[in-house]
Amino acid sequence: MSHISEILEYNRQFVESKQYEQYLTGKFPDKKLVIITCMDTRLVELLPKAMNLKNGDVKIIKIAGAIVSHPFGSVMRSILVALYELNADEVIVVGHLDCGMAALNADHMIQEIRNRGISEEVLSTLENSGIKLNKWLHGFENIHDGVKGTVELIQKHPLLPADVPVHGMIIDPNTGALELVKDGYKERTGK
């Protein structure tokens, strides 16, 4: 049975037995938070439990390394939608120890892209269009610096309200222990 078949069969039973009822909530986050965190599989259940979050409490955006890499990309747009349209009023960036983005090697990934059938012509076209794959696919050296850099990018965004605190944290993916690396209450931009 394929993954899709398994998912659809489970979902049919889930809906028929009304297991969804325990998750019913509104679209506005009860704790008025938007969290940007890593897509790491260890954080799927651990992060909400470690932060005492339940369904409906927060908006969670999951991206590789919890790194916002472009001030006008889809992640920043999602943050602004959460703030302006969905009643969030704080942002927390949560990176984690032992993050795969710290070990990401752009040259290796580009080789894997080739190995999976992407042609040199496509890679060359991207490079000639100004997309520098080595830079775009680069990870970070230090998780603390990665979180701080993302917090600063968000804080300095021209569309971020001055009264919105942007915090930075690091979670241990084994224990759930949190370390505060940027206190947004102390560092509001004062735009």
From TrEMBL:
Zn(2+) binds at C38, D40, H96, C99. GO terms for molecular function: carbonate dehydratase activity; zinc ion binding. Its cofactor is Zn(2+). Binds 1 zinc ion per subunit. Pfam families: Pro_CA. InterPro entries: Carbonic_anhydrase, Carbonic_anhydrase_sf. It is an enzyme of class 4 (lyase). Its EC number is 4.2.1.1. It catalyses: hydrogencarbonate + H(+) = CO2 + H2O. SMART domains: Pro_CA. Keywords: Metal-binding, Zinc. PANTHER family: CARBON DISULFIDE HYDROLASE, CARBONIC ANHYDRASE. Belongs to the beta-class carbonic anhydrase family. This is carbonic anhydrase. It comes from Paenibacillus azoreducens.
